[in-house]
Amino acid sequence: MHNPPPRPLRFVHTSDVHLETDTFGAGPKGEELRQRVRGAFAKVIDLANDRDADLLLIVGDLFDSARVSEEGLAFALGTIARAHMPVVMIPGNHDAHDERSIYAPLAPSTLPENLHLILEPEGRTIQLPSLATRIWGRALVEHTPDYRPLSGIPAPEAGKWNIALAHGFFMEDGDMQRSSPITAEEIAASGHDYIALGHVHVWNDVSQGATRAFYCGTPAPLYSGDHSGWVAWVECVPGQRVAVERVIVER
């Protein structure tokens, strides 16, 4: 790599937590699931802290819908505030930044100081100079085939770790009829070190060329019989291939 970053970078990549899910309604079964999902998210923060991560990425669908109580929102933001590192987050299709957006009414002063929330539909770049890292992502407004999660991704910047966040569906065969498509060509052409993907609830490596790209799956017990979920632990070392490990989140 020409002019590589001056330091290594280690971070946690999570997505599709689906906090405050009402899949099972308001009864005891639904409340039990909501509390288990909350517990899983809390353990993601614990894992990032315990591993002394430099960064935490939340790649969409932190919430299951826009039907979130003030108490549920306070739990999520308070849990993020416990992270000892910067947290970068984008909306997904379940918590889209549309007319019902959970995030639009939030005053910046109500957000944790460590949270970088990307709400720009056209995308935004976040510079983290102390980490020699540049992060790009864009907010999902409408989950349709016209929305391209990697559209507008900037060229990589020398001397930094270039990371992108994208919530959508990887289309290996190029079929653009699925909503929020992401293609192999887009990943390869990005020139980024790592693309953190969200939307698919299982672990999947869709790396292309020199760019590492992964779905981390969900850490949450969203399906009957689930006892554990997972996140991605990513290590970037100058001069080496980005290493990605699936880490179990015990529940």
List keywords for this structure.
single chain; alpha/beta; 6-stranded mixed beta sheet; 28% strand; globular
The number of distinct structural domains comes to: 1
Helix content: 10-25%
Number of strands: 14
User: Under the CATH scheme, which class?
Assistant: Alpha Beta
What does this structure look like?
Helices cover 17% and strands 28% of the residues. α1 runs parallel beside α2 (70-81). It is an alpha/beta fold. The mean pLDDT is 93. It has helices at residues 28-50, 70-81, 184-190; strands at 9-14, 55-59, 87-90, 115-117, 124-128, 133-137, 161-167, 169-171, 181-183, 194-198, 203-205, 212-216, 228-236, 243-250. β11 and β12 form a beta hairpin. It has a six-stranded mixed beta sheet. Strands 5-6-7-10-12-11 form a six-stranded mixed beta sheet, with no helix packed on it. Strands 8-9 form a two-stranded parallel sheet. It has one domain (9-250): Metallo-dependent phosphatases (Purple Acid Phosphatase, chain A, domain 2, 4-Layer Sandwich), CATH 3.60.21. It is built from three helices and 14 strands.
How do the helices and strands line up, and which of them pair or pack?
Layout: E1 9-14, H1 28-50, E2 55-59, H2 70-81, E3 87-90, E4 115-117, E5 124-128, E6 133-137, E7 161-167, E8 169-171, E9 181-183, H3 184-190, E10 194-198, E11 203-205, E12 212-216, E13 228-236, E14 243-250
Parallel strand pairs: 1-2, 2-3, 3-4, 6-7, 7-10, 8-9, 10-12
Antiparallel strand pairs: 1-13, 5-6, 11-12, 13-14
